[in-house]
Amino acid sequence: MFNGTNIIAGLEIGTTKICVVIGELKADGSMNIRGLGQAPSNGVRKGEFINPKEVAEDVRAALAQAEKMADVEIRSLYVGVTGGHIRCFNNRGIHHVYSADREITQEDVEDVIQNAKAVNLPFDNSILHSIRQHFIVDGEDGVTDPVGMHAAQLQVNLHVIHGKTNRLQNVMRLVQTTSLQVDDVVFNGLASSLALLTAEQKDLGALVIDMGGGTTEYAVYSEGVIRHSGVLAVGGDHITNDLAYGLKISLSRAEKLKKAHGSALVNEEIGDQTISVTDELGLEIKRVKAGHVHLIMSARIEEVFKIIAEEVEKAGLMNLLRAGTVLGGGCTHMPGIVKLAEKVFQMDVVIGRVQNTGGLVEALEEPEFATAIGLVRYGAIYQRKPVAQPGWWSRFTEFIKKLMSLVR
Ligand SMILES: Nc1ncnc2c1ncn2[C@@H]1O[C@H](COP(=O)(O)OP(=O)(O)O)[C@@H](O)[C@H]1O
Ligand SMILES: [Mg+2]
């Protein structure tokens, strides 16, 4: 049992479930999911911790399950973060190339990125991600690697995602109380997009929406790069709340009713049919009209989609989404959600499937695990440690070779 450098773990602390996924990055670059563990989430509301002790216990339970399944011991993991405090913007950095021949070097690239990162955030915010979009070389846009090009001015566009420092620190502190190290904190919406989108969809332009219990995260791509992202502190739990309030039933019955008879679309043909609401023993408490249930549900989901559509429109990206919208998260189990999204966004919508990843089918096929799998994929893309360290013998022979070449 070991946590070799090719083992990567992701932890999503959701409002509904706490989930750990363990992946193995193979030497050929492919990803294999080896372990999945989950525990119902008892201490989180709208993505915020209301009972950290309970959250830590749930993390331990999910981790133990995943470790057992993967037969590895995890010491560090990539942790997803979300919440209404997370914001994004795009920023441009400018740098003048001073060398005599005006050839752009790696140092110029690092300088321009530093320049773009120097942003004025609200005092209590920290940068979560600053993701490179494109370079602009003497006004020529869309350059992906400017090193070696000749120019007087180099610019770069970055997508910056930031959040409240104390909320981000709370996540790190909580994970550390479980004796685990945090490899990195990652925005859940970014993680979901890494799991659900193909490179082609990113090129064509796509919107990813992950609708969970207390939050809905989204991310927009076009021309291969992330352009916009955000979080709404609204999710499936609000639909349950609306049903409980509107039908005068308890939250637990509303949740059961939503899952068993819910629909995101109002179907006039069955609108007058009645659904029986039962207690724990299966005895009928009351009967409600299907049309009423579906109307309450569709109103809330439509509202969430409309807010996202407005945001995407405001960012000027709506017409660039040629690959359409991809849905993830537990709410995608709801019948009719794809049709409703198509109506609001006026484009093709599909339920996302995890891309380019093998292993546990039960993890890959359920849309609610996309975030945790995406965290593992983030680790594979951004981890700084090499996949396999050369052993001491090959390092020693390398050293001798270098010495010999100096002597010769
Ligand atoms: N069959 C279903 N119909 C409607 N909603 C569902 C269904 N299955 C799960 N959900 C909802 O999905 C949400 C949980 O999604 P998930 O992505 O696991 O959440 P989180 O990441 O916030 O923990 C809950 O609100 C749950 O009621
Ligand atoms: Mg989630």
Number of helical segments with 4 or more residues:
12
User: What small molecules does this complex bind?
Assistant: adenosine-5'-diphosphate, magnesium ion
Shape: globular
Write down how many β-strands occur, each being a DSSP E stretch of 2 or more residues. Answer: 19
Strand order of the biggest β-sheet: 11-6-1-2-3-19
Secondary structure: elements and pairs:
Elements: E1 7-13, E2 17-25, E3 31-40, E4 44-45, E5 48-49, H1 52-70, E6 76-81, E7 87-96, H2 106-117, E8 125-137, E9 140-143, E10 153-164, H3 165-177, E11 181-187, H4 188-196, H5 199-204, E12 206-211, E13 216-222, E14 225-232, H6 236-247, H7 251-261, E15 274-278, E16 284-289, H8 290-314, E17 325-328, H9 337-345, E18 349-351, E19 357-359, H10 361-364, H11 370-382, H12 392-407
Parallel strand pairs: 1-6, 3-19, 6-11, 12-17, 17-18
Antiparallel strand pairs: 1-2, 2-3, 4-5, 7-10, 8-9, 8-10, 12-13, 13-14, 15-16
Helix pairs in contact: 4-11, 6-7, 6-8, 8-9
Report on this structure.
With 408 residues, the protein is an alpha/beta fold. 37% of the residues lie in helices and 30% in strands. It is built from twelve helices and 19 strands. The chain has a six-stranded mixed β-sheet, with helices on both faces. A five-stranded mixed β-sheet has the order 14-13-12-17-18, with helices on both faces. A four-stranded antiparallel β-sheet has the order 7-10-8-9. Strand 15 and strand 16 form a beta hairpin. Helix 4 crosses helix 11, helix 6 crosses helix 7 and helix 6 runs antiparallel to helix 8. It is globular. The two termini are 46 Å apart. It binds adenosine-5'-diphosphate and magnesium ion. Magnesium ion binds next to loops.
